[in-house]
Amino acid sequence: MDTAVKAAFITKFPAFAQGLPDGGVLNVCIVGQDDFGAAIERAAATRVVVRRLPAVTPASGCHVAYVTGSARQSVREALAAVAGHPVLTITDAGAGGTRGMIHFVVAGERVRFHVDTIQAERSRLQLSSKLLALALSVRR
Amino acid sequence: MTMMESEDLGRLRRTERRQFQLVRVSAVVLLLLGLLLGIGREAAYRLQAAEAAEVQADILAGAISAPLAFEDRTTLVQALRAFQRNPDIAEAIVFDMRGQAIALRGDSQHLVPPSEAGTLRQDGRLVVTRPVVEEGVPFGWVRLVTTRDPLPEILGRYLALGLMTLIAALLLWFASRMAIRLEQRAGQLEAANARLREEMAQRARAEEALRQSQKMEALGQLTGGVAHDFNNLLTVIMGGLETIGRQLSKLPGGAESARVLRARDMALHGAERAATLTQRLLAFSRRQPLQPQTLDPNRLVQGLGELLRRSLGETIDLETVLSAGVWRIQADAVQLENAMLNLAVNARDAMPEGGRLTIETANTALDEAYADSVPEGLAPGQYVMIAVTDTGAGMPREILKQVFEPFFTTKEVGKGTGLGLSQVYGFVRQSHGHVAIYSEVGVGTTIKIYLPRHVGEEAEPEPSRAVGVDLLVGDERILLVEDHDDLRSYSAGILRELGYEVCEARDGEAALACLDKGFRPDLLFTDVVLPGGYNGRQIAEAVAARGIAVPVLFTTGYTRNAIVHNGRLDPGVDLITKPFTFEQLAEKVRRILDRPSPAQAGPETP
Ligand SMILES: Nc1ncnc2c1ncn2[C@@H]1O[C@H](COP(=O)(O)OP(=O)(O)OP(=O)(O)O)[C@@H](O)[C@H]1O
Ligand SMILES: [Mg+2]
Fold it and tell me: What's domain A2-139's superfamily in CATH?
């Protein structure tokens, strides 16, 4: 249940972020355990390509990186790898406390998120105020 | 009196019509303009309202994009509530990508999932559907349903238009009414104009008729005077010729005397013809002495039949249509016969190829209106009509106007004198009647003679006794008054030749002088018109005043005077018309003298 919601959210965040490179296709990279299967593609309203990477680099061409930590690259390492590059990073409370620009939590049976605008700004990404209005907390 | 020419009137009406057309067109233009303006305004208003609603929807879409995307129902509902607080917005609904509706009211009629953006108007409400998009990524739809326009607002919007329409309609109605009324008034004016013109034409006709009758009157005066003189001369001529004849017959017959006799006969014939003409002239001038008697018009026409048939010839059928019970008339039979003959001869001349002549008699009444239309004057009342109709050439109007004038003829010189209808006219008028003529070229002519009905006792006409000239002699004394010297000696000659004793007088004074000398006449034979103090009647009265009861024989060719009441003789007055012949005078004188004197016959009924 949560997985499907998160899959949908993942495809929607870029619409509320400015600064991501243009392209006809949204590249979503998953670094770590993949519970989604085809859920992301199903949920997306636009064309999405989901790639599972053992590790992410700025050259991976990811628009969105969903990072839960792999054997090769921990969450922290992954975040550090793309920091300063226009990649929207998403972390999950279920995979530890390390937070990316967006950090999923499940609160009161609902999938919710925290937002970190400092990381985003460092990557020259502008997160929409509409998104911030929905966040559980915003770090600025 | 001013009269507007119909041309002016027409122009005026045309201008008026154009002006009204202009007003009408203006009103229609105004109406159309109002409608157009209204429609334009309404369209602009709707467009603006739609745009406003769309902007609102877009704002809503922006506000709920994130809550919709991240399924934050609480925030979403809050946003919707906030929107619905706007009084212009009845409902705000959000659809997600699957078409699932999120609405505040479950019973909304606008929950059909949208497939595209759009703005609809549904029973007075705007239904605006807009996509929810962020950075080109669709998340669903928002739908706004506006509230219905409040009535006063609608009214306010349509009031100006309605007023304008109303005014234009009023204007149209008013203009039409005015146009109708003016049209009516113009119609009335035109009718009045036509009436006026008709009246003027009528007056012109009446004036023309009056002129004609005055002309006839003047002609009558003129011809009457000439004819009177002619009559006197003819009497002398004819008397002389007769004396010549009588003297010749006393001479032994021979070739010489036979030649002279033939010449005398020719001269006498000519003189007689001249006398006929003069009679006609006198008839026209209504100065012919008439001897009216009570007549049955049917009998007169029947009696004429043979003569008419003979003068009409083989090729013309004579038909008589005589109404039973036709009234009596009082007229001079000889002159009426003359008139009928003149008409028949005219008809014959108009039908050279033959045809039909119809003579009708009928009783009729001429009413006041008809009598008024006769310029010479006519008394309304009962009349007997004698109509003579032919199937001849007819006459055009110009000729018709002149036919009664003396000497008017269309016939060759020597063939027509132009006095035929003049006689008819004068005689009928003198008999207090009326002549009407109707003619159509190529169809024929009808001439109607109207003579007044006679009511009263019938004076039986004196039976004419055929007496030989030998028996007409006498030795009684006759007082002869005549101003015309030749005529006086002519008459005296005849009377003396017959054996009478004659005292000649040229006027009243002389006549009384005869009496003073002790002349006791058995007969007074006097001209009617005389110079000096006395006319014929006055002489008769003067003689009677001296206690001498004596019958009077008047003579005249010209009787527009005391002896003739309205152109007729008093009944019982004897008259011999100039010119007269030896025989006529002899017979007349003898008849009067042979009549039992009033004293012997006893007193007459007063
Ligand atoms: N019945 C008729 N039909 C056609 N024309 C007529 C008729 N009666 C008279 N007229 C016309 O009127 C004119 C005058 O008629 P009127 O009798 O006075 O004279 P007249 O016939 O010409 O001459 P007269 O009578 O002496 O022979 C005629 O010349 C003729 O033109
Ligand atoms: Mg004639």
Answer: Response regulator (3.40.50.2300)
